């Protein structure tokens, strides 16, 4: 479980580099999956049509991949945040990889200037730079977080209620995407492994709430309400706004994490350098993002993380009937919350 750490380095540092350093990472025994076998088996289950081997379990009101229920339980029991922690959070296919890259490049810019030829993002996938909390806690490997110097930068798809102490103790940056665009992007992503999955089936699970980490409305509203209650602790970003104004989004991110850009950095073009380094075109061209898998256990290729990165692309795939159905769900679930979608 996370402690304050003793490294003299200033974070964030590329997690892959620290994880590979046998002298830095403390060996911790992995807790066997059977630790939560009884809990998982007792939960309501759902298998997505078109994804026959992908089972979801309903845990604390959210549908989660069966294999990640132990991670959720472990997070709730064992996660100990540091006051300087920054957690990047989102639903699937909402600009996660882009925001992870921007957050890392922004927070680590003094050690790794965006124009440097040896910048970590030029040799590592963004998710190799920033640890995925579910991946560590699902195997009882969260002790690896101890080796990270503060401030730690982490990533999660978990609902806020599953991350104890994250707010208001540390800082959370959440990115939200228009739900129809999210659903279409999720369909394109999942059919790389499940080619039989149809868009209609994907829209069904989004509208029914039976999508991974869904219902999407409860996930989004958990962070939306936290941002209203603790604006100094939760930054709520809109993917579409980030696309329109990437430079200003990076400045906003930097101010939020307590690392605003100086006048000298502005003059030197550091903000523009970060945006260009983390652009879809740039990341897609990196060798580390052309090969390998997001998770070796499930063969989603890394290059599938970099598809189009545009707004309103859902219009090219959804039928009018699908769009009307999702719009009805959105209108109903977000009525009176103050959160509206373009």
From TrEMBL:
Return the SUPFAM superfamilies for the record.
Answer: P-loop containing nucleoside triphosphate hydrolases
Q: Which residues form the Sulfotransferase domain?
A: 83-338
Residue ranges, annotated region (Disordered): 1-33
State the EC number(s).
2.8.2.-
Q: Which UniProt keywords apply?
A: Transferase
GO MF annotations, alphabetized: transferase activity
* Stated family: Belongs to the sulfotransferase 1 family.
The UniProt entry, under PANTHER family, shows: SULFOTRANSFERASE SULT (PTHR11783)
Protein name as it appears in the record: Sulfotransferase
């Amino acid at each position: 479980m996370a402690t304050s750490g003793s490294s003299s380095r200033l974070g964030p540092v590329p997690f892959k580099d620290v994880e590979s350093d046998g002298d830095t990472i403390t060996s911790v025994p992995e807790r066997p999956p059977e630790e939560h076998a009884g809990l998982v088996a007792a939960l309501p289950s759902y298998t997505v049509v078109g994804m026959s081997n992908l089972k979801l379990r309903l845990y604390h009101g959210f549908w989660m991949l069966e294999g990640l229920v132990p991670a959720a339980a472990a997070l709730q029991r064992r996660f100990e945040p540091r006051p300087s922690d920054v957690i990047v959070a989102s639903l699937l296919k909402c600009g996660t990889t882009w925001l992870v890259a921007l957050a890392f490049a922004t927070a680590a810019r003094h050690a790794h200037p965006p124009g440097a030829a040896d910048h970590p993002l030029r040799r590592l996938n963004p998710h190799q730079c920033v640890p995925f909390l579910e991946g560590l806690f699902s195997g009882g490997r969260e002790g690896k977080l101890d080796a990270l110097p503060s401030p730690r930068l982490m990533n999660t798809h978990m609902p806020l209620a599953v991350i104890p102490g994250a707010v208001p103790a540390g800082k959370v940056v959440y990115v939200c995407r228009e739900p129809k665009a999210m659903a279409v992007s999720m369909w394109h992503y999942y059919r790389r492994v499940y080619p039989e999955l149809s868009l209609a089936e994907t829209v069904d699970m989004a509208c029914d709430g039976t999508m991974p980490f869904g219902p999407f409305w409860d996930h989004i509203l958990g962070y939306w309400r936290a941002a209203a209650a603790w604006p100094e602790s939760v930054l709520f970003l809109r993917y579409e706004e980030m696309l329109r104004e990437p430079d200003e989004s990076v400045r906003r991110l930097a101010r939020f994490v307590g690392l605003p850009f100086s006048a000298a950095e502005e003059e030197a073009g550091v903000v523009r350098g970060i945006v260009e380094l983390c652009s879809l075109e740039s990341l897609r061209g990196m060798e580390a993002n052309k090969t390998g898998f997001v998770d070796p256990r499930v063969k989603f290729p890394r290059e599938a993380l970099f598809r189009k990165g545009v707004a309103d692309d859902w219009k090219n795939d959804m039928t009018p009937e699908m769009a009307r159905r999702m719009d009805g769900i959105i209108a109903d679930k977000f009525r009176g919350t103050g959160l509206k979608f373009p």
